[in-house]
Fold:
Amino acid sequence: MKILVLNSGSSSIKFQLREDHGGVVLSKGLIERIGEPLGAIIISTANGRKIRKELELPQHTVALQHFFELLPSPELQCLGSLKEIGAVGHRVVHGGEEYSDSVLIDDKAIATIDRLSSLAPLHNPPNLKGILACRELLPGVPQVAVFDTAFHQTMPPVAYMGALPRELYDKYKIRQYGFHGTSHRYVHQRARLLAGLEGQPSKIATAHLGNGCSITAIKDGKVIDTSMGFTPLGGLVMGTRPGDIDAALPCFLHDQGMECREIQHMLQKKSGLMGLSAGLSNDMRVLLEKSATNEYARLAVDVFCYRLKKYIGSYAAALGGLEVLAFTGGIGENAHPIRARACEGLEFLGIQIDPQRNAAGSGRETLISTDAARVKVYVIPTDEEYVIAEETLRLAGGNSRPAA
Ligand code: ADP
Structure:
């Protein structure tokens, strides 16, 4: 069965067409600049064919309509007709406390995802636009929502409750949710398999380090803590977001004359690596290259690694020991100096990186710890679309494979 995986953002939609239990990518690409004067649809296939078409894409339904006309093009040879699409899997950022699992989309699920937009105003509304457009354009094709928050729903209250007045939770559901759950789930599943711990008790930490960064502590297959919080601002230092900050800061800045909107913008777009490097870059490649000569770039890298190291240590404490640590995301998969720096000094926990394995281990599944180390450390490229395709097949395919 062929499954379309969609990740709908406010002005772009990323897609993959998969088959064979999610494992084979037939084509992938991007619909971009939706709502701008000139948009584009880019599709490339596993057999090396590619098309790129520039056209006006005023909104999501029109964009997907054009996309569905292009996808079965004979020149691509990845899909004979739209009828071959057996189901659509959507990445949805926020499933709140309602969803600890993926869901087959019906009117009730749509209403719930819409209601949860208050918790993820930048993400759930465009996710929903993609769902509604597919309902209209592919009537009768089952659709599944796979939530970024779902994997983290096993966290106990001791990890997810903030030390705030109780009524904030009761009234607004203010608590820690965690994000990147689909990636953590995939990487954890691979790490457990690689370490020979499938079905065994296990203490695993997965670090997803991309533009957004988060780390998750997973005990016996269940998340017990994760670093992102009520929104994806908390926890680790990120490309343009600060991670953990003192809660008094926004009010202090407001008192200094900054508007709420400006403060939000500063926390979303001008902080993290970008802020620490005094606006030089949020790109870790640039910062690593400049850190020999530029003190702000060096400090940005230092703070990034230090925060990460502290979280690894705290999650070893939360788990009562650590057996496996896995790195993923653009930085985690590719930046061996960052992996080395984050693990430096953690030998007392049993973490010991092999410098040769680490330097050679980028971009593919690799063990980068020494053979003598108590903790197995891996690089594991993430594959969120695989999980979304598998989940879609599980819920919509009438083909009951167990959850990943
Ligand atoms: P997103 O969270 O947007 O999906 P990615 O997972 O692609 O982002 O990660 C983007 C980050 O990965 C950037 O900071 C980029 O600099 C970093 N990155 C990608 N390749 C390398 C590399 N070879 N060395 C260091 N950093 C890298």
About this structure: The domain at 199-384 is CATH 3.30.420.40 (Nucleotidyltransferase; domain 5). The longest strand covers residues 24-32. The pocket of adenosine-5'-diphosphate is lined by residues 210-212, 239, 283-285, 288, 329-331, 334-335 (CB under 6 Å).
